[in-house]
Design a protein that fits this description.
EC number: 1.1.1.30
Enzyme class: oxidoreductase
Strand order of the largest sheet: 3-2-1-4-5-6-7
Protein name: 3-hydroxybutyrate dehydrogenase
Helix content: 40-55%
CATH architecture: 3-Layer(aba) Sandwich
Keywords: Oxidoreductase
CATH superfamily: NAD(P)-binding Rossmann-like Domain
Radius of gyration: 18 Å
Largest sheet: 7 strands, parallel
Family: Belongs to the short-chain dehydrogenases/reductases (SDR) family.
Bound molecules: nicotinamide-adenine-dinucleotide
Number of helices: 8
Number of domains: 1
Length: 257
């Protein structure tokens, strides 16, 4: 692949960081984002390791103006954002009855609405150059539900709806839009859930992993972050030019049931 500019939200942790590493290894320009305190150092060390150009902007996904500035900065520095990966996300687990309203707003805002704002912001330049790749990191929860995850399931289903609509609109201007739907991946987001579930079920963390977290996955193992990164590289490649509007599962057989 020719050198491109790749903007990945939430790329200073977990899945986003693995995706950033994969694109950095191929020599692309990277725009890092995330709220980790050491985000700037994380971005700098990946850039140093692979000798690439980069930008780090801790834009908060809840602030539309900051998202527009994020894209403007990237375009001023590198020309266009060729590949946008909407990955930033948060989770909160609670029955609807007691689900905090501010958590609902934050989950919808970060996991869904930010993807709309960023898609809108990168669109004109992608359209002008008749090339763009947008990859939305959804979830198995974009296709099926689990109890106590109302906001997350709603946001991820919404993200798949946005993916399909944007794919139709992008079809005439060289922009493909796809979603990836991972099962459980052992990142800080899931590590926090393991601790919380062990406390609320009064069982060990090992039992939470085997009996709660991986209960629905036919393959009783976490999805490696590197596998999701490899899917992103493929979706960004020329070979995937006619793949659009799809929701690709990598969930150890969870959604096969
Ligand atoms: P993570 O907690 O390791 O990383 C999330 C990233 O998002 C971090 O960099 C964080 O700083 C950033 N972020 C959170 N709120 C933000 C905000 N307001 N503004 C800017 N950045 C913000 O989690 P992860 O597991 O790597 O999750 C990445 C994506 O993958 C999420 O969208 C998540 O829903 C999705 N996903 C994760 C799993 C899993 O099992 N871990 C499974 C399916 C889908």
């Amino acid at each position: 692949m020719q050198k491109k500019t790749v903007l990945i939200t939430g790329s200073t942790s977990g899945i986003g960081l693995a995706i950033a590493r994969a694109f950095a290894q191929q020599g692309h320009n990277l725009v890092f984002n995330g709220l980790e305190m050491d985000g700037e150092q994380i971005a700098a060390s990946v850039a140093e390791e692979y000798q690439i150009d980069y930008l780090f902007d801790p834009a908060n996904m809840l602030h539309p103006a900051a998202l527009r500035t994020l894209v403007e900065q990237a375009e001023n520095r590198f020309g266009t954002v060729d590949i946008l990966i909407n990955n930033a996300g948060i989770q909160h687990v609670s029955p609807i009855e007691t689900f905090p309203e501010e958590k609902w707003d934050a989950i919808i805002g970060i996991n869904l609405t930010a993807a709309f704002h960023l898609t809108k912001a990168v669109w004109p330049a992608m359209k002008k150059q008749n090339f763009g790749r947008i990859i939305n990191i959804a979830s198995a929860h974009g296709l099926i539900a689990s109890e106590f995850k109302s906001a997350y399931v709603a946001a991820k289903h919404g993200l798949i709806g946005l993916t399909k609509t944007a794919a139709l609109e992008g079809a005439t201007c060289g922009i493909t839009v796809n979603a990836i739907c991972p099962g459980y991946v052992k990142t800080p987001l899931v590590e926090r859930q393991i601790v919380d579930q062990a406390r609320s079920h009064q069982i060990s963390e090992k039992d939470v992993i085997e009996k709660v977290i991986l209960a629905k996955q036919a393959l009783k193992q976490f999805i490696p972050t590197e596998s999701i990164a490899a899917m992103c590289l493929f979706l960004a490649s020329e070979s995937a030019a006619t793949l659009t509007g799809a929701s690709l599962s990598i969930d150890g057989g969870w959604s096969a049931q």
